[in-house]
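Supplementary notes for students who missed Thursday's class. We covered one full example, reproduced here. Read the sequence, then the structure, then the short commentary at the end.
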Amino acid sequence: MKVRALVVEDKPANRENLIGLLHLYCPQVLIIGEAADNDEALEKINSLHPDLVFLDVRMPGGDIFTMLEKVKEISFGIIFVTAYDEYAFRAFQFNALDYLLKPIDLYKLIESVNRAIESISIKEENVRLRNLVDNQKRTDQDKRIALPQDDRIDFIPVRQIIRCQSESNYTRFFLDSGAVIMVTRTLKEFELALESCGFIRTHQSHLVNSMHIKTLVKSDGGYLKMSDGSSVPISRTRREELNKRILK
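Structure (token representation):
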């Protein structure tokens, strides 16, 4: 079975490169169309009804979020393609959406395509993409982060997260409701996504929401008391930066 794909990229050379890689290394992908700006992308999405869209982040005709707001129903998988852009990078991590960094790494391209083919859930993709768009209108602590699990994706308001704790390649989220959510992603990934929302890395294994810090205890090596009564250690290497962030 072929996956029908649309490639949205404003630079012809980049578009040709991506299509060439897909032809050579992803034979299960059938390119059904190309678009060079947001208006053309919207028209092709509505007329061609692709299964998968490769979407460049920076496009002529306004930002991609404005274009995506006009798509009534996301009935396709989506892989964002971007040069390193700190804002975009965090946005996609925040919503558990797939993305490729330019220049495109062949192995990551194949991995992303295979993942899209194997696990695209139209309902989940629609909800994740809507969350991405809606987050553009929210203040930092009002944003919702997507936490994917085996059988579902939880969308949690950032303000409800007290702290995150690393357990090897897993991250455990502690919420103000008392609930705990385990996610199969590293703490480093969440640090990159959440640091702009007031989260602080206090230790190799701990990331805390500064909104939930109740007390900074300087004795016993230093630790934080959080709003749920938990204690979070502060590593020696992080102590100075933490003091700056808290006391500024």
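Commentary. The first helix runs from residue 12 to 25. The mean pLDDT is 83. If anything here is unclear, bring it to office hours.
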